[in-house]
Amino acid sequence: MSASPEICAQVESLRAELSRHDYAYYVLAAPTVPDAEYDRLFRQLQQLEADWPELVRPDSPTQRVSGQAAPELASVDHVVPMLSIRTETDTTAAGAETFDARVRRALGLEETDPPVEYAAELKFDGLAINLRYENGVLVQAATRGDGATGEDVTSNVRTMRCIPLRLLTDAPPPVLEVRGEIYMRRDDFERLNAAQEARGQKQFVNPRNAAAGSLRQLDSAITAQRPLSFFAYGLGEVQGWALPDTHGGILDGLRALGFPVCEHRAVLAGAAALAEFHARIATLRATLPFDIDGVVYKVNRLALQQALGFVSREPRWAVAHKYPAQEVATRLLGIDVQVGRTGALTPVARLEPVFVGGVTVTNATLHNQGEIDRKDVRVGDWVIVRRAGDVIPEVVGAIPERREGELPRFDLMAAYPVCPECGSHVVRGEDEAVARCTGGLICPAQCKQAILHFAARRAMGIDGLGEQIVNQLVENAIVKTPADLYNPALVNDDTLAGLERMGRKSAENLLKAIETSRTTTLARFIFALGIRNVGETTAKDLARHFGGLDALLKADEEALLQVPDVGPVVARSIVDFLAEAHNQTVIAELRAVLHWSESAPVAMDAPGLLAGKTLVLTGTLPTLRRDEAQALIEAAGGKVSGSVSKKTHFLVAGSDAGSKLEKAQQLGVTVLDEAALLAMLKPAPPQAEPLAGDMQGNLFED
Ligand code: IVH
Prior knowledge:
Number of domains: 5
Radius of gyration: 30 Å
Number of helices: 26
Helix content: 25-40%
CATH architecture of the largest domain: 2-Layer Sandwich
Structural class: alpha+beta
CATH topology of the largest domain: D-amino Acid Aminotransferase, Chain A, domain 1
Largest sheet: 7 strands, antiparallel
Bound molecules: 2-(butylsulfanyl)adenosine
Number of strands: 24
């Protein structure tokens, strides 16, 4: 039975309504419905599409995330090259005059001729993107690359709700390429980094890098979680769209078609007005919700742009006019230290408050003693502070000419012989840049960080155990070690409900999450311990190599060096960690309350039962979570990929397997269920006995 005309009309009207709400939210910045109402309409459309799959269209708002990871980003040749803009080196007002004079000269204008009209806009600090619409539908999104060839990021860009999947017009042009900048707002960036930290994942240095990293993901499901924004600023190839006469007209046209266009723009006549714009934006820069690195002036009339043409790969009709670096001088009032998870003491400059790059800075990092010496920074000095990448403030150096009299050098070990948080001794190894507190878990600063790391998504994955809660648990002396989390006498309904910002319901959820985390993998457990220099990959290698915890605990440096990719530094960190009695105690307590499956150690030169094999997981497995299955496969030396291809050796399929299963069947890839996977992972029985069942024997033949 096919969908009735009423159903078709309802589906269309829901799509149109959702697009209108997206437009109101992202382009007009004037939301028309509360989130809950939007979600309701969205779910309604999802349900109708589930009931009538033939009505699903790729440009439906429900189809933004495809769920297929790509093995790599394909390259795309730009039909119209993506050029760069010349940068005016003079950052003062005079820079605008130089540009205007150059334009007038190139156009052959006399002094008595009227001023040239310019479109002035912001220079966004993100990444250029080309969005290709054919007959109104987004068919491709590509990065700038080298200008001639970029990378195909279509499935990632499709996840961005601020970019229309379909142009808002009933008469779409056959081809319209829209160009603009993908960026991340500062508040979104801060939130993303906080979340990354809580999950024990990498921090981004600035919004630009975060935007670039998010856009170039192979798995668009990750991009979908990242808060990316977009501003349109120009065109690529155009067929069948009546071009307006001016650049300003193009931006108005793009806005009407559904694209966010920055409102900080103006059409101005003459150099003086450009310089005024530059100055006005300089004062506004700090209050903008996103980073810019200057302003851009473009000759407004397209006919004049054409007359001016290009020099090498830059248009003669546009220039970027930047701002000077954001550096200011202030007084260094003192040097404090911050204690990190592994006890590292980071010196932090306490500064006389100073306004730089849009915020008042009172602290800035000094990195370590070596940096303080190299920069010869002393308490009482005037120092130069920079907001690096517009985000993290740092002390660039001292201004020795402004030093009044003799000031003592700062010696971290002398200033902090004991940890300011717990009073334990501070030590610094001979070749080490970093001084460390020896307090381990008795140091509240280290304890908080250790528990946060332990709970992080990629470690034990305890949802809901964030910084606020951990701080309170440690400060109220409810929890002293990660093992305490599993002690019902310490962490229970009553103790949790007594914390700030913790209702009964969240307490219940947190207890459930703690309970769920009891079943884990050896690799996660090793990573969760937070041993210095032991990241997720090393933890997986260790788990695979030793197979069980006892073998790891017994390993000396020499044994550790046998593990692939473990060098002397990592081996030393592990031995040092295990030599601490309090770490041994916590490990013993934890292993009594956690469960993971262990396997026989993988012999030094045996590459693992699945070495060289690529597996893909799909559907819901009866007992293993996706990440657990992945860990088991990786522990056996196999690789888990997100998509099925000719190179896939096995597809492990659970219930509700979809397109991956179909593809595997088409390609003749062997399909396993969970039981077959587990059977394969059983280590070979000792010595000469034959492998159980003939399936295992066959499966390893290529
Ligand atoms: S116009 C032919 N306008 O700056 C001119 N670019 O060096 C093409 N950018 O990679 C670019 N804000 O990512 C233009 N308002 C703006 C811009 C802008 C930032 C970036 C863009 C490009 C680079 C050009």
